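Quality-control log, excerpt.
Job 1 of 2 completed; input and output follow.
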Amino acid sequence: MDYHGGGTPHKGPYLDARGFVVHESTACARYLLDRGADPELLLKEVSSYDTVGNAYFSLTIHALPAGWRRLAVVTSDFHMPRTAALFRAMYRLAGRELFGDADRFDLMYVAASDEGIFEPPVLEIRKSKEAASRDAWLRTAAGLGSLRDLHTWLHQTHLCYAVSRQHEFGVQTIQDPKLLASY
């Protein structure tokens, strides 16, 4: 089963047998706990609906308050170029603005193999979508000069977090069934 935070704008959230949302971080924590991980070493992030939110909320609810400087970002191969671009831009912005050092955070990127994740045609269309989304993010990030700009963009523009767009959740925007299957 694949988990996406509290859902995505493209598909509703996964629910457990009692009807509660199964957050991606909860599923991942369960996986690690079942394999002997120490629960004292695990933290969850349950605010995000997408990778943009993963980067933003990991920074604002964990890295900054905890004073972390070294972090590992883990995702699949197909998803890593966009993920790395998001994390790099947001963490560099915070480092530059708050500490006068754009390189304050040492981010290590760990990509898991895409082998068997999707059928080849689905994987190819998702890779194309990821590349286009990465390019769009890079254009957006170029215009963000401060954490305030990032916060404003996220909460006034982005589909997942802008109140003015919440009516768009649940509206199917992905028409290609191959691409939709990748969520």
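Job 2 of 2 completed; input and output follow.
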Amino acid sequence: MYYMRVQADTQTQTQWSSKGLLRLLRATLPPAGKAPASAAFDAPPQRLTSVQLNELAQKWRRRSAEGDQGADSVAMALELLAERRATERPSRMQAVGRRLSEFMQLS
């Protein structure tokens, strides 16, 4: 994909390029003065679970089968993150917070 190309000396290597990716993401946003007044732009996205990440990785694998050359690397990154989240132990502070929420019946 064009946003992953980085020139290195005389060879072209495929690597993640944050400049190219950010430029691509900015291009999909509405113009600055014409942004809709919604909280969707203000709120951070929800954290995906390992199951959701695996589902996304499968979709990217399908895109790869359809000919998208960069889709394999995206799928691999999503699978790696899903595996890490599946085996992730919550920190001690998160565990205490969860227990307090359960005790106070907040969750």
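Post-run check on job 2. The CA atoms of residues 89 and 95 lie 9 Å apart.
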